[in-house]
Design brief:
By secondary structure, the chain is an alpha/beta fold. Helix content is about 45%, strand content about 15%. It has 19 helices and 17 strands.
Length: about 525
């Protein structure tokens, strides 16, 4: 390979280093340059996050790949690539399972014999992630020089360094790991990731970063199953209290007689069964954050006592006259409209206004367009791992069914659906397959009975309760978002696939709230 093709591939990336580009676009250009230098059928950029590889950009792989989290211990090819300091090319007849088996666009069979190579990326002399290339032709990479890939990987490492420094808000990786570990130990939970690329989710993440840096009380609203507790965890992680406890209380899960004890604690003999002194959630969260879920279920009496603690920081355990001072940030959540509850006299106006200093609405899944496919990829990879499969994927008609469904149960419903459907589909095979593909029938997304046609069975794709204009807008929004994901937000390419002029696509996207 001559120097000219390598320079042609590297020079635009060098120029990009000094440009203010969105992270997704920066990575898209990186893979575009890589495929120009080393023609292949699929390429991917993956970041090493603890013991998992997280896809940041893919080219030639299915959209749901971006939602997957590949455990290195379960994928020997990835482990070998990370263990070698330079590029590695696998024998075309290597028996090692390929993590992308079943995920290459346009290929519905097993990968069988093909060409595969990859190269680790290092940032500050530490392993950061991988670049991978796959070609269906087993001799595609015969004539390439691995030094060219090594040179490209070095510049790729510089690219991701620039992107991370812009996005990291002045925290380096070591601080991030320390904060995350402190959070995990304090909360007893593994922090979960908020997955998606839609405009509503990006707006929510911007709001979380903004309010997270403050100490304001936050009221999170949204439908059941949208992930309000996950938002509370993200706000806590983004705050200066991240190294302190995040303590949660589901206000709907306790009888009213126990809520006060759970919140404020009690002393021995305070009530029947109080055999000893006990700290409440406020004292346990001192210095950190208290998350009150389903706060709309609190009685007026408890609301009054909570209001005093929020205003003064002083509380009394049940049965005690002694006051305790606490420093706690409160994040509350409710799927009720608390303003309506105030109007109806079931909620204190002063307590509502004290909670909703910074209201934050979590969008429903049906508002997030093609995010449903990325979330599906995340849940598919979880179930693939649990079931011991080589690959668990969605057929095109299954993807269409997921995009068309209105998701009344939101992300929680999607998670349960993927797990249930995968188990049922696996049960239809006498022997465990290498690749298990879920189609629309496996998902069993049946329309409600009242939407069935009198002349025939109900359609397999449920219809949202929208008027005609809303339904058409929702459908167009989903089509455009899915197309943009396939083309990595290249608007010109998306316009060509949709058969639209680029300017017309831009105007349509703006009207639909995508720009």
């Amino acid at each position: 390979m001559t120097t000219t093709p390598l320079l042609k591939a590297l020079l635009p990336l060098v120029s990009d280093l000094s440009r203010d580009l969105p992270e997704a676009e920066r990575y898209r250009r990186l893979l575009e340059a890589l495929r120009a230098l080393l023609p292949c059928d699929a390429a991917a950029l993956l970041r090493l996050d603890d013991q998992c590889l997280v896809p940041l950009a893919v080219d030639g792989l299915s959209v749901d790949t971006l939602g997957r989290r590949f455990k290195v211990s379960e994928h020997p090819r990835f482990a070998i690539l990370l263990a070698n300091p330079g590029p590695t090319r696998f024998d075309s007849d290597s028996p090692l399972p390929d993590p992308y088996d079943g995920l290459v666009e346009g290929l519905h069979e097993h990968l069988q014999v093909h060409d595969c190579l990859g190269c680790p990326l290092f940032v500050d002399e530490q392993p950061w992630g991988l670049l991978t290339l796959d070609a269906l032709d087993p001799e595609r990479f015969d004539r390439i020089e691995l030094d060219a890939l090594q040179a490209f990987a070095s510049l790729a490492a510089a690219t991701v360094t620039v992107a991370e420094r812009i996005d990291r808000l002045a925290r380096d990786a070591q601080d991030e790991r320390a904060r995350a570990e402190a959070y995990r130990l304090a909360s007893g939970q593994q922090p979960k990731e908020m997955i998606g690329q839609s405009a509503p989710l990006r707006h929510l993440l911007d709001e979380i970063r903004l309010v997270g840096s403050s100490d304001l009380t936050v009221l999170i609203t949204g439908e059941t199953g949208v992930g309000k507790e996950l938002v509370a965890q993200a706000i806590h992680q983004a705050s200066a209290r991240a190294h302190k406890p995040l303590v949660s209380l589901n206000c709907a899960a306790l009888p009213e007689t126990l809520v006060e004890s759970e919140l404020f604690g009690h002393v021995k003999g305070a009530f029947t069964g109080a055999t000893g002194e006990r700290r409440g959630k406020f004292e346990m969260a001192n210095g950190g954050t208290l998350f009150l879920d389903e706060v709309g279920e609190l009685s007026l009496t408890v609301q009054a006592k909570l209001l005093r603690v929020l205003q003064s920081g002083h509380l009394q355990r049940l049965g005690s006259d002694r006051e305790h001072q606490v420093d706690v940030r409160v994040i509350a959540a409710s799927n009720r409209d608390l303003a309506d509850e105030v109007q109806a006299g079931r909620y204190r106006a002063d307590f509502y206004h004290r909670l909703s200093v910074y209201p934050l609405r979590v969008p429903a899944l049906r508002e997030r367009g093609a995010d449903v496919l990325l979330l599906s990829g995340y849940f598919l990879e979880q179930n693939r791992s649990r079931m011991g499969l080589d690959s668990l994927r969605l057929s095109p008609d299954a993807q269409a069914a997921l995009l068309a469904y209105p998701w009344p149960g939101n992300v929680r419903e999607l998670e349960h659906l993927i797990g249930r459907s995968a188990l049922r589909a696996l049960g239809q095979h006498r022997h465990k397959p290498r690749i298990l593909t879920l189609d629309a029938r496996d998902l069993d997304l049946i329309a409600p009975a009242d939407l069935a046609d009198d002349q025939g069975p109900a359609t397999t794709l449920p219809v949202a309760r929208l008027d005609m204009r809303q339904a058409m807008d929702a459908h167009q929004r989903q089509l455009i978002e899915a197309c943009l994901l396939r083309h990595r937000h290249n608007w010109a390419s998306a316009a060509r696939e949709l058969g639209l002029d680029r300017a017309n696509l831009g105007r349509l996207a703006k009207r639909l709230g995508l720009k």
